[in-house]
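Filed under: proteins

Residues; backbone shape codes:
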Amino acid sequence: MLHNFTTVDVMGIGESAMLLALFFIPPGYVAGWLTNAFRFRARTSLMRFALSPPISIAITPVIVYALGPYPRLLWVFFAAVWAAFAVLAIRLRGIFSLRLSREAQIGGMLVLGWALLAILSLADLQLGNRLYLSTSTYDHCVRSAFTAAAAREIPPVNPFFAGADAAPLRYHYFWMLLCSLPCRLAGMVPRHALYGGTIWAGIALMSLIVIGLESFAGVRERLGRLSLVACGLLAVTGLDILPNLYLSHFKAPMYADPEWWNVQITSWASALLWAPHHIAGMIACIAGFLVLRQPATSKYQRGFQIVFAGLAFAGACGLSFLATFTFAVSLGIWLLACAWRRWWDEIAWVLAAGALAFVFAYPYLHAVVFPGMSGGGDHVVLRLAVREFPLGMRMLARHTGLQSPANLLNLLFLPLSYLLELGFFLFVAVLRLKGVAAGRIKATREETAAWAMVAASFLIGSFLRSTSLNSNDLGWRCFLQAQFLFLLWGACLLGQWAVPAMDPLATPGRRMRGAATAMLALGALGTLYQVIDFRIYSLLFDRGIVARTENWLDQDRQAGRRTFALRAAYESIAAGLPPGAVIQYNPLAPVYIPHLLYSGHDAAVGLPDCAGNFGGDPAICRQRSDAIVPLFVQPSAGDDSRLDGICRAYGIEVLVATNLDPAWSRPGSWVWSRTPFFANAFVRAFRCGRPDPLSRPMR
């Protein structure tokens, strides 16, 4: 290949992000004007544009899901939205009268800085004939396949179980629906579109900060400056760098993600770069809740607010099960507080919005969530368990010989675990709570709602865990809403240090302020280390600088060359195939990430058990696996003669073998008896299902 893959990715992600602006700005702008969400009509032109992304994330996913099965109707909807946006923007001189204050200029620089960071973090890094992936592709490879599936049809099917028996995808995939739209509109690469969506998730989060400061913190003066402070705090995480330094002192292997030392409370950098759909789910929940709580001048406006909140809550279900479950618990606590305080109007609004949300979300829930509950699909299975603290248990085992974790001991470790995970933000939360208890901060409805969200995060994070995955994914994501509030309160605290009259929080003493400053510095350093680690970990491993700790990495330390070869192979293969073609690789391949990331096509058996958690009949998958897997892992002399029949039976058009497959190492196998139409030192690709495969190899 003559082109540089890093350059291709940088350009592709940038172009996708620009195309995604069509889906993250106009829908929110038009909806904001129609509903006057967040006092949209009274805002400046710049603020209207800034508020559009979180509004779009709140209302667009459900609409795309509903109209997706009818592509023409979907594009008619967006054409109408774009036309209305153009009329509004020109009529209000929104495009031509943007006057940028100093804060706005700094905010624009932050947005550009975030976009550049996201692009450089997610793009493949090419060094000669070696290609290195970001650690976050461990998650993005699966979602890239989901985005490709959504670009072909809505609702998407499980891309790892293609064919006549394909099943609807069971996953919170609404974010992938949004990211797939540039693929439909302009043929963008699904992986690039997904990464472009990451940029917009960060922009929407920054915009939500402005709304949150107004609503939860009651900020009216110096809003722009405090918003910049809060955006800056996105670069601060907990004290994770300290446990990593401690473990490195004892020669422990370097983690691919520095937060894996514990049941993590995910940093903002990690949450955005790894799993932006959870951020989007949190944004939808909070945006819907805040619109629901706006003052209404008429019954009609209140009705619009309830519909807006219903759409937002319904969309959140498809954006992130985990964020929505946590928010639902928050609403339960909030309703109890409202009943205690006799705020009956609040109860009525929430119940009305919740009922509408169920109506809007029912088609998705019926197709995706409810079948999983009865059939073992991808859903959140919960059990009671105290949040684990592995480092503490390891230290106890070293000094006392205790080996098995105990809930009582984990309970005792909770304060230390939260101190290390939250750092400066735990300090902020404790100081805020003291202010409320002492009466310096009034227990308004907004303050009560905020603490209901914090309480839900800590209750779930401390005493529940998800069991649908080996990792406690719920324990990672349930803190997002609490972290968002800590971000707002942290900005207020720092603003109060600069201007003491701004906030009723008590000014801490010198020692407390020094400790807070140290935690801020360590948190910023931790984020910097994390972002660098994401980018270069695979390179360090490939060069033998770090020890192997993960089973999804190459065992022969040829990741760079093999990844380069696989990407080159898949780009050549895709050039001659229709979008719906099925490409089959070894579903048991230890190095599976490049296959999922670069294929862009469905597979008959894409992962072990056809990734049945995402949809499909396990019995049918076993039949497929029994026919397909032996071709790669237990090749026999008769494989070549029956290979085309297997491909025809499951709709496979291309077989891809790598030098890690056992069939590669057997000279008489089909990998060597058949003529590939693409071949290099690591990959051989074959047409199959036809009586006459293409004959001339490409090199």
